[in-house]
Amino acid sequence: MIQSVLVANRGEIARRIFATCRRSGIGTVAVFSDADALSPHVTEADAAVRLPGNSPADTYLRGDLVIEAALLAGADAIHPGYGFLSENAEFARAVHDAGLTWIGPPAPAIEMMGSKVESKKLMAAAGVPVLAELDPDAVTEADLPVLVKASAGGGGRGMRVVRELADLPEQLEGARREAQSAFGDPTVFCERYLETGRHIEVQVMADRHGTVWAVGERECSIQRRHQKVVEEAPSPLVEAVPGMRERLFEAARLAAKAIDYEGAGTVEFLATGRADTDGGDFFFLEMNTRLQVEHPVTECTTGLDLVDLQLEVASGLALDADSPAVSGHSIEVRLYAEDPAQNWQPQSGPVHRLALPGTAVEFDVLRTPGIRLDSGVVDGSTVGVHYDPMLAKVISFAPTRTQAATRLATALGRTQIHGLRTNRDLLVNVLRHPAFLAGDTDTAFFDTHGLDVLAQPLASVETERLSALAAALADAAHNRDVATVDSTLPSGWRNLASAPQSKTFTGTGGDVEIRYLLTRYGLKAEGFDDVSLVSATARHVALDAAGLRRSFEVSRYGDDVFVDSALGPVSLHAAPRFTDPSAVVAEGSLLAPMPGSVIRVGAAVGDAVTAGQPIVWLEAMKMEHTIKAPASGVLTELSVTVGTQVDVGTVLAVVEAAHAEGES
């Protein structure tokens, strides 16, 4: 039996695997890049080995260094997690050659499914329905729209939708660059793009004795940029179409048996979503020969610990003849550090606090209704620019789908997330949307219902103003607490009536100016005639608004202020009393939205540019980001070249806007 496992990964999935190992009495070994030296997965392992460098190519993708680390630490097995080397057949062989146990499928199975091009041919021969592959060089107008996909990877990397034939060459070039960066293989292909498909996948588990389980299906149709956002089990579509589950399971078992599969894997299908006389049609997309990001929803609905099963199968143990029954409903959402107001740019920086309300189970199977948290960060963690910006997966389990959605939406809405902008509002609004609750979901969900509409802040403008008032009162209480003279007097106290206290914050709706007086008769706040103060400390403020008492928890980190209440979370920034002239940026400046590396420059100083024209391409968090001209004019300054490393807010270029005739 396995005694010690090295996890060749980082963050959330490393912590998830370690949790099962600890419950099973198995030792744990972590590897870490320089950027991850203080990561929670490092401190939680029994031992950790440094991989010098920061980029994945220098660290987590170096199979030779990972194997050396396992031998150094005395581990007898390697678990690859997902991403990085998890679907690398050469790495799997090298692990075996080093005398270590590989917790994954056989290398030939990984190889056969490693190329999406070749795997489709293999599946078609095995009788699994497939969507025809298109040669990128032979795509015609009649084939449009098409989806460009990376042959060697997933997770949305290297994927582009092309609707105009003239755009195909540029999109192919960008997809190849992204695929090379993420997977070390620039091979891409095309297939017909189904605008309103349903993404259905089947979890399989197989042992070396010939038993293949189709454990259950998941639906992952709600996606943005071809990345899954919401995942659930079981699938609402499959539940509604008679006979579809049996056909899906049979196709998944055929796929696994065709390659003599062992261990955990996921067979992904694209369904048309039609419930005709033959049931919903579906086509094979790919097989992920590893543990899937969304595996917790299958665990919660089956009671299985899939990581524990992986360990048992890798040790040679046999599965039972039949897989366990599915009960209840589970929904998972992926909480990303990204700013909806800045075109969903990934965010980097400190995570001051990430706390769910009540008691959430961490990295364990939910056997009763509740909330589970699988996170790669803890309070005080820093999100860097080298890796995916996913902060956590939040999972609910309940007897029914509606209960699971309601429970998860409420928990997310009351979660304290301090430090970075996230997609939390989008997730809650999706979970509460009537179409989602009705099971009417497909890959065009955001196009149909409006991404901008769904991303609206949970807190209303009025809630933001009330929260800003609470923040100002908490700030005054804090000032009294730290005052060295007359700390018992109210902030701004005067012997005679004076001007109101003033505090300005910047919120999602712009600047909010709070002006108030604390008198012997109570609070007098401009614009808040029906609001009275109940109590105020540096952390907690209670206000009575039109007869309703509301409690606000206020947290400050420098000039950043976070106010949490039942009305909705509010993020504020305290405006400085005086403007620093050196912080003023010239009009027309293109600023780096995040730290990253310049990989391409699209214009030179003196060039005439048009509004929206790409000027600089940045690579950060495993994705390409295009920085465009804010207006038509002339590029008067270009401060970066290819290879330049930039910080957030760096001025990349300056465009002097063109003026109308006669305008100065």
From TrEMBL:
Matches recorded under Pfam families: Biotin_carb_C, Biotin_carb_N, Biotin_lipoyl, BT_MCC_alpha, CPSase_L_D2
Catalysis: reaction(s): N(6)-biotinyl-L-lysyl-[protein] + hydrogencarbonate + ATP = N(6)-carboxybiotinyl-L-lysyl-[protein] + ADP + phosphate + H(+)
InterPro entries xrefs: ATP-grasp (IPR011761), BC-like_N (IPR005481), Biotin_BS (IPR001882), Biotin_carboxylase_complex (IPR050856), Biotin_carboxylation_dom (IPR011764), Biotin_COase_C (IPR005482), Biotin_lipoyl (IPR000089), CPAse_ATP-bd (IPR005479)
Stretches assigned to the Lipoyl-binding domain: 581-656
Keyword DNA-binding: no
Domain ATP-grasp: 97-315
Cofactor(s) of this protein: biotin
Keywords: ATP-binding, Biotin, Ligase, Nucleotide-binding
Span of domain Biotin carboxylation: 1-451
Alphabetized GO MF terms: ATP binding; biotin carboxylase activity; metal ion binding
EC number in record: 6.3.4.14
Cited PROSITE patterns: ATP_GRASP, BC, BIOTIN, BIOTINYL_LIPOYL, CPSASE_2
Keyword DNA repair assigned: no
Protein name from the UniProt record: biotin carboxylase
Organism classification: Bacteria, Bacillati, Actinomycetota, Actinomycetes, Mycobacteriales
